[in-house]
Design brief:
The chain is of the alpha/beta class. 27% of the residues lie in helices and 24% in strands. The longest helix is centred in the last third of the chain and has 13 residues, at 175-187. Keywords: Cytoplasm, Membrane, Methyltransferase, S-adenosyl-L-methionine, Transferase, Transmembrane, Transmembrane helix.
């Protein structure tokens, strides 16, 4: 499952990713998330793209009250948890090995009276998409899910199938990431809506369909 090998001699800059837990104050809540790089690799740590997307949502840039939201590649669940705390009905998804950690973080951080607005579900991009009906969601969220080139076709198929507005938060590291954005623009109307220069994180908004008008 681990896409990045675990290394006991981690660089100091990455040491926070190897901690067993991490904490944030977002959406007027203290959020404490378990991490498990050793077992699950990149799927089980909080990356800057997730933090920036949460801050973007917290700032009120998107009306989440009562919206049906699905998060792809949720990992620790930070983005989906924050979206739920801000009033959305959220389905947070990842591959099967990540679901135990994801579910535990939801139980730990979502108040009991809001647990009903949260669903943890298995979703491997491009597979069994019939379980997620097109039009079932108002918004798709993804934080740092644009990094593994072989997953790009399946990710694009999943976004097209879900047929909802998309917010992608990512760091553009390589030419392959630019190629993904080019492919995305062939399918959606895409614009950059925010850039965090300190963390070098972009947030892109993709419309439900391509058109000559801006979103």
């Amino acid at each position: 499952m681990a896409l990045v090998p675990y290394d006991e001699n981690v660089l100091p800059a990455l040491s926070k990713l190897h901690q067993a837990s991490t904490e944030f104050t977002l959406a007027n809540h203290r959020i404490r998330l378990s991490q498990d790089w050793k077992r699950l690799g990149v799927a089980a740590v909080v990356w800057d793209a997730a933090i920036v997307l949460c801050m973007y949502l917290e700032a009120g840039n998107v009306d989440l009250k009562g919206k049906r939201v699905i998060e792809l590649g949720a990992g620790t669940g930070l983005v989906g948890i924050v979206a739920a705390l801000l009033g959305a009905n959220v389905t947070i998804t990842d591959r099967a090995p990540a679901l135990e950690l994801l579910s535990a973080n939801v139980r730990e951080n979502v108040p009991p009276d809001q647990q009903g607005a949260m669903r943890v579900s298995e979703l491997t991009w491009g597979e069994n998409l019939e379980l997620y009906s097109p039009g079932s969601f108002d918004l798709i969220l993804g934080a740092d899910i644009v990094y593994l080139e072989e997953s790009f076709p399946a990710l694009l198929r999943t976004l097209e199938h879900l047929s909802a507005e998309v917010l992608l938060s990512c760091r553009i590291r390589y030419e392959r990431d630019e190629r993904f954005l080019m492919e995305l623009r062939q399918r959606f109307n895409v614009k950059e809506v925010y850039y965090d220069s300190q963390r070098d994180i972009h947030i892109y908004k993709a419309g439900k369909s391509r058109s000559s008008t801006e979103l």
